[in-house]
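Why do we care about 3D structure at all? Because function follows from shape, and shape follows, mostly, from sequence. That is the central idea of this module. The next example makes it concrete: a single protein chain, its amino acid sequence, and then its structure expressed as tokens.
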Amino acid sequence: MRLKQLLVVAFLSANSLAVMAQKYEWKTATSGGYPYKYVTNDPMGARFYTLKNGLTVILSQNKKEPRITTHIAVRTGSNTDPKNHTGLAHYLEHMLFKGTDKFGSLDWAKEKPLLDKIDALYEQYNSTKDEAKRKEIYKEIDKVSGEAAKFAIANEYDKMMKSIGSQRTNAHTWVEETVYDEDIPANATEKFLMVQGERFRNPILRIFHTELEAVYEEKNRSLDNDAWKIQEASHELLFPTHNYGQQTTIGTIEHLKNPSLKAIREYYNKYYVPNNMAVVMAGDLEFDETIKLVDKYMGYMKSKPVEGYKGPIEKPIAGPIVKDIYGPSAETMRIYFRSGAEGTREEMLLDIIGSILSNGKAGLLDLNLNKQQKVLGAAAGSQQYKDYGFFQMLASPKQGQSLEEVKDLLMQQLDILKKGSFDESLLKAIVANYKLSELQALENNASRGSSLTDAFIKNRGNKWNAEVAELDEMGKVTKKEIVDFANKFFGNNYIVIYKRKGEDKEIVKVDKPPITPVETNAGKQSDYVKSFVEKPLPNVQPLFLDYAKDIQRAKLGNADVLYVPNKENSLFRLTYRFDQGNWNNKLLGMAAQYIQFVGTDKMSAEEISKEFYNLACSFNVFVQNEETVVSISGLQENFDKAVNLFEHLVRNAKPDAAALEGLKNRTEKARANNKLNKQAIANALRSYATYGAVNPTNYVLSEQELKNLKAEDLTNLLRNMMNYQHKITYYGPTALPALTAQLQTVHKLPASWSENPNAVAFNRQQQTENKVLFADYDQVQAEIYWVKNLDAYDPKQEALVNLFNGYFGGGMGSIVFQTIRESKALAYSTYAFVQNPGKKNDNFAVVAYVGSQADKLHEAIAGMNELLTDLPKAEQGFENAKKSLMKDIETDRITKDGIINSYLSAEKKGVTHDMRKDNYVQYANLKMDDINKYHQSSLSKKPYTYAIVASDKRVNLDELKKYGEVKKVSLEELFGY
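And the structure:
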């Protein structure tokens, strides 16, 4: 369900959350000379402005931290791509980071003629059919692009954002939207808007052919991604005539090979106009000041008539329609039903039905399939676009189960829904849990911004009153309406996609064009950027934690209680933290899963799940390597009931042999699936490179140990859990004395703690020579990692490491990104950084990565090795990285139970104070020479372990021997089963 805005609610009881009578009406007002609209009783307090040029501006104020989430949204995506240039909206999004005639260029007058020549060459290239002539033209494009790049400065936009302390610089394109994102310090609002105004004034399509190669890489990554293939196939079948299904966001290979800079400009001029755009900002802003600044810097834009995409009316699906998709990953399946346009009652009813079927605790799929372990996992939900949407049910098979059997199980749950065989009280619980989750989301600027942006894209802005009131409307929905609708909506009008394991014979790789690395001028800057960076920002003083004052402490028996009050709402989060994990006992992870499937002598597993859902509370047991965390959260008024319910379950868990057999089956299937998952294989290979043949990834129950496991082994572990030493943490509205009094009743503790099992020790390997670890996986791409363990953790080194990472391998302005992607076009994704360990007796470690086409593997390795050997020096890049880190700290406000988490994190590192204070002081004093010395002493000319995941049909293992001794690691060695 998309984010709906929370009403002012009075939480009254476990089974009903009554809503105070509210009116949600549009009102108009004027402030600071600018008229705006708003909806009464909107908890976001959003103001909707329309500037004279038609630009929509939506502002929401949230003063909890001095930062602002920003989205600049354009109503354009793959829907509006020209038929002969699919993918255009997406690669235009990439080009909006390349600058204008004022920034991104050393000398625009000299650069422009070369760019004009490149334009003409691409038009000639596109109209030429003879392959030999095309190659000659592309050679000329490559040559002229190299000449033009001598005047281009890559990533000046990112450098400016870093200089103001922006975070999460990014953008995305989808079927009907392109959105540009930032998270800025509140004191940088004017400088941010200044850049945005310039950014959209006259974007220049420079450094184009290397950026297009990055899009090729993105296309190839999608060809290796079975989930992406499912998505494309589902849309094609759901929307056989509408662009939702007939044009993909990345575009066709043929169109990617024949780009037109002329078409890109025409597209930009057509759709990037103010009456088709919105500026959305949520956070610590002043309304009058902000709207004035938006108008100042973006009011120059000229409106034009925009004819949006008008899709055809789709015929009803005469199903069932079945399609098989093949790929190397694990088998799974989906069922899809097409729905209608946004903003209808049908949309709301499908949201509710999604939760009746799948809400994580008490839905029909949750109880009848997941809880009973009839499948590996199942879920359901809806997705809404402007013209159409769809409802989907998805599931993965357990061991020995066919996809067809899974499909039948899903359809049986639909039949139960259509018969009305569910308790009507579930509807009230669904609304209560929506309100709970959205109360939590309201605290987050990103959630506010995303919801308001979605409203603009889907033309919901003028329906914001209905959006705000929607939870009220959901509360009025009856079981009869749901059942009647379900019987009308769910028929044979569906599509089934079976994702089967096997070779995909339809893959056509995007071939690597010959590209000469281009100059990025990383150490230089335009006059515009120089002036921008030198312009000072208003000061924001950092606020550091004082753990002695910010955390209250108490004792509950022999357990420490750490407490932070919640003064904002009626939610609580309680945790029990144990200093033991999988390294202490391999059964803990199994026990954490098993607890979801067992009941007690008084309640079944299903009854326990239903009760937690009715209480609008939840629990989770997280088992990590050396720690186990039990988390219980929800409404404070139900604190006693929720904690009592969990304590009853954990202390009285009833052995259930059938549940254990189901868990064993699902564990075996999950393990088999891991061997088909390239990211799981890559993670396991990195673990092997870090720790050697015996490592945390393959330290698991053997097949025989799993087979011999008995239900009593796990229930005994659960029943004795609270006998082991643990800390108790709480964030909520109850005062500390009252909390400890409540806990004395619900959380009984032993007179003395049981002794923790000893943890197995995993020692990091010290690389003394280059080695290559290779794992075979059927894919177009090659995933290449560099791994090296460094010195033991020293808190005094943390600031230096952070600054090195920001300069060297983090973000679009980093050395690694600019060289590997921008200059050499070797990858879509690349990074390199030194890992900060989480505990005092661990080590720093280097991890670098390039994901490239397999035929670029040796070029990619050479490119990263050059950077690991010799550090390019860009003084301005260094200063930007330093400023960014300092501004992050200045505007960082650790609140709520984040205060406790910060303290516990510092404690693990052997530190008793807020380390940000030390780092902030050190950042100011660090020099470029310090970074260079660190690089030389820790990274340069050192031995590395190369961990490579690729197809041995595309990569010659003998050729890898030039990098070091090669070991092809089997999946059994990687995973331990």
